[in-house]
Design goal:
The chain has eleven helices and 14 strands. It starts with a strand and ends with a helix. The chain has about 325 residues and is an alpha+beta fold. The strands form three sheets. Strands 9-11-8-12-10-13-14 form a seven-stranded mixed β-sheet, sandwiched between helices.
Length: about 325
């Protein structure tokens, strides 16, 4: 396509017509000639906001970008309301690719009950691959907003589902041919299908009802990075048992293949939760078919300690995500 804003005909048929209106509080959404979205507020509500850049190296880009941002909103305790998408396309992008991105994004929005509020689409030679910046908006009653100062020493640390789901799915799709030289097609298909677990919106809804104090979506930097960040946010120390961290065998094997640490790799689909009664939270999630485990607790002081079969070490500051290294090494 030619450099510049998408032609109006392309914008209409491949973007705007793919988006469905589904929330009553959205008063103004995407349309030609409309520069802003409008969302109606209620007394006592606060809005939460999140933004993320997602690049074209990810399969199912449209779906992925919605999951990532909706998860961030859910971590605050808020109900995701809508997203705005800024889509930058290299000149060799086909219109069909644009249409698929928007269709996939709206399909995930439908499943989560949220709406695409608007955004911008442009073809530019400033990017070499598709780049989507997603800005999300969530809504919550002010008294229910989850703030870090609610957490305190003695609270349990809980993780929902399994760490490494996001990176495992990406590697299984991006590096399928290489992996098939070592693993069975069934294992690769299973690993690629981990993207069905990427939403933690339901996890967050259940956790709120079970008395969760704080949540943090485990994304770049993996669970070790998320644990460090939760310590920074709360001002507490922590102790966590590596053996208790839930992880799928497919993730372990694929990370071993690429010689990367599965605890320092992108992990959307897992929510790190702080709760006064971790067992109660695990049971509540389990009743809804969501696997979870208590992996540790917050402590007095600032020490952030990992234990593993009797060995003890201090948690280090977050490092660059291991997924980048896996993709880079496999290309060399």
């Amino acid at each position: 396509m030619k450099i510049g804003k998408l032609p109006e005909t392309v914008l209409e048929r491949s973007v705007i017509r793919q988006i469905r209106h589904r929330r009553n509080e959205v008063l103004m959404g995407p349309a030609v000639g409309v520069d802003c979205a409008a969302v109606e507020a209620r007394d006592g509500d606060v809005f939460t906001f999140s933004t993320d850049p997602i690049t074209g190296t990810v399969h199912d880009l449209g779906a992925h970008c919605i999951y990532v941002t909706a998860n961030d909103l859910a971590a605050s305790g808020a109900e995701p309301v809508g997203v705005m998408l800024s889509v930058l396309l290299p000149p060799d992008t086909e219109e069909s690719a644009v249409r698929k991105i928007v269709q996939d994004a709206d399909r995930v929005c439908e499943g989560l009950g949220i709406e695409i509020l608007g955004g911008h689409t442009e073809v530019t030679n400033a990017v070499r691959q598709i780049l989507i910046t997603v800005t999300g908006i969530g809504r919550i009653r002010k008294a229910e907003l989850l703030l870090p100062d609610r957490a305190e020493p003695g609270d349990s640390i809980v993780i929902s589902k399994w760490v490494g789901l996001e990176a495992t799915s990406i590697l299984a799709k991006e590096r399928e041919k290489e992996l098939l030289g070592r693993f069975s097609p069934e294992l690769i298909r299973t690993a690629a299908g981990f993207d069905r677990y990427l939403s933690v919106v339901e996890d967050a809804e259940i956790a709120k009802k079970a008395g969760v104090k704080l949540m943090h979506d485990i994304t770049e930097g993996g669970v070790f990075g998320a644990l460090w960040e939760i310590g920074e946010a709360t001002g507490c120390g922590l102790t966590a048992d590596v053996r208790s961290i839930p992880i799928r065998q497919e993730t372990v094997e694929i990370c071993e293949f690429f010689d990367v640490n599965p605890y320092q790799i992108m992990s959307s689909g897992s929510m790190l939760m702080i709760a006064p009664d971790g067992g109660r939270l695990v049971r509540a999630l389990g009743e809804r078919g969501i696997h979870a485990a208590v992996i540790g607790r917050l402590t007095e002081g600032n020490d952030r300690i990992l234990t593993n079969q009797g060995e003890t070490r201090y948690l280090e500051r977050p490092k660059p995500d291991e997924l980048y290294r896996a993709l880079g090494e496999s290309e060399s």
